[in-house]
Specification:
single chain; 215 residues; alpha/beta; 8 helices; 8 strands; globular; binds D-xylitol-5-phosphate; binds zinc ion
């Protein structure tokens, strides 16, 4: 099993104090930063885009995992590359062709990840397992932080881990939504090794313990 990587989602941070919020989670031992990008079309919410990612890039050396909840990811890969993304996660349910998006991300020298919403079958990611760095299994409906973990997504984590093992692929499986000290063990047990957590980490009075409790 891979080392467990903790990815705080800045969606739950104070955007007016991003620099100190990022330093706080870095000092608490977080491994990477999860940046949620929403276009108000693919999901019913709007968050941030490339200019904010560029500002974040200037103030931290943390690995930036950009989760694109947007309808046309292919159009924006160059912009996120330029802004400083290290990994781009895009939805299989988006309007772009997955093979083209993965190819473009790889050409940009960034790590590709495919994301599936709760209602999308695990097998939808199987054709891409050999090409991607990670698969992100949404454990809530994308669009908002602070929702409850959907337990019926757990079996998909296991199905994807089993398929990756069958193919001997050292795949990262990321989970996102409702991750806290109670749900993290369930996701890890099923085979997840990258844990995104927004409200659990940023709303905590003790961020060091919150990060440690997930690991
Ligand atoms: C939801 C986002 C998540 C969100 C998770 O659409 O993709 O990354 O920030 O928030 P919590 O951890 O509060 O469920
Ligand atoms: Zn996310």
């Amino acid at each position: 099993m891979n080392k467990i990587l903790i990815a705080p989602s800045i969606l739950a941070a104070d955007y007016a104090s991003l620099k100190s919020e990022i330093e706080k989670v870095k000092n608490a031992g977080a491994d990477m930063l999860h940046v949620d990008v929403m276009d108000g079309h693919f999901v019913p919410n709007i968050s941030i885009g490339p200019p904010v990612v560029a500002s974040i890039r200037k103030c931290t050396d943390m690995f930036l995992d950009c989760h694109l909840m947007i309808s046309e990811p292919l159009k924006y890969i160059d912009a996120f590359k330029k802004a400083g993304a290290d990994m781009i996660s895009f939805h299989l349910e988006s309007d772009s062709d997955p093979d083209e998006v993965i190819e473009k991300i790889i050409q940009c020298g960034i790590k590709p990840a495919v994301v599936i919403k709760p209602q999308t079958a695990a097998s939808a990611v199987f054709p891409y397992l050999k090409k991607v760095f990670a698969v992100l299994v949404m454990t809530v409906e994308p669009g908002f932080g602070g929702q409850s973990f959907m337990t019926d997504t757990v079996k998909k984590i296991k199905e994807i881990r089993d398929e990756a093992e069958r193919l001997s692929i050292p795949l990262h499986i990321e989970v996102d939504g409702g991750i806290d000290k109670n749900t993290a063990p369930v996701a890890k047990e099923a085979g997840a090794d990258m844990l995104v957590a927004g409200s659990y980490i940023f709303n905590s009075d003790d961020v060091v313990s919150a990060v440690a409790s997930l690991r």
